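Lab notes, practical 5.
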Amino acid sequence: MLNFVFIGCGNVAKFHADVIYGMGHQISAICARKQSPRIIPFAETYKIKRIYDNWQEMLNKESPDAIVVAVNWNQTELIVENIIKSGIPCLIEKPVALSSKKLIEIISATEKFNQNVLVGYNRRFYDFVPQLKRVIESGELISIELNMPEAVDFMAKTHSSNIIDHVLLYMSSHWLDLLMYLIGDVRIDYMHRSGGEGKLNSYNGILYSLRYNVPVHLQANFNAPSQISMSFNFKDTIYKLCPIEMMTVYRGMERLEPDDRVKFRRYMPRVIETYEVSADYKPGFYNQMENFIKTCIEHSWANETGCALNDALKVTELCEKIKSGDSILEKYRRNN
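Output from the prediction step:
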């Protein structure tokens, strides 16, 4: 049985705690800010014996096998460097830092311990993702569509208005990380930004897969009445994630003949198969925790699936490039 300690006790921490107890492990201590209204109910729910308001004191007094860091989205970069330097395996919720510059500093300062760190991009661990990755590697991929209509107004109410400027990194990075996990590095060929200074921007453009030489049609129209989705288009088949926790495979068209309600013939994509993630835990969290234990604690697996710090850096840099409109087309225009 492994012994975990937690830094943070919000909703995401609960998802991790559910999995840890479901696996038969324990949480011996938890740390949160002074007078946090969540910490006592959290400790009671998960039978945690010791509560701290100083994470350094907790690590000095406890002897954990691993740490889960799930603090507020804008606080992680303030504490994570020294936590990693403790040498204790860490599962750290994203974003690790709010800029690539800061993340590079953290990676450089903690290089000795980077193999002990997993970043919490759990979408990589959805049950159907390994199958989709194999299909992409063996199939004839033509194009990809990624739609990221984040509910920014809702996020601003539940967090703060400060999150608006970081929405790409805070939320959209989940889908961008999954994209790059599946198809490798991408460049930005074209990016249109609308909104303007001091306003919520939207981003629409073309990314390009360097590994598969195909375009990625990106839409990030925040607050749009739409669902997050990813479509991988092959010669005669489409693999579509929509909602993102479900994968539907389409092949061919189905003809619907006229009837009493609709007087004309219609054609619809034919559904071949559907796959859904397990609903026993928050999707991806069980597989992610298993990967963390095997790769960062036991070191019995090579980390081929989980998000390492350098992977988090790539997605952070991509978010910054999308936000700035840095693209091949813009560079051409500047140089000509």
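Observations recorded by the TA: The domain at 124-281+316-335 is CATH 3.30.360.10 (Dihydrodipicolinate Reductase; domain 2). The longest strand covers residues 246-256.
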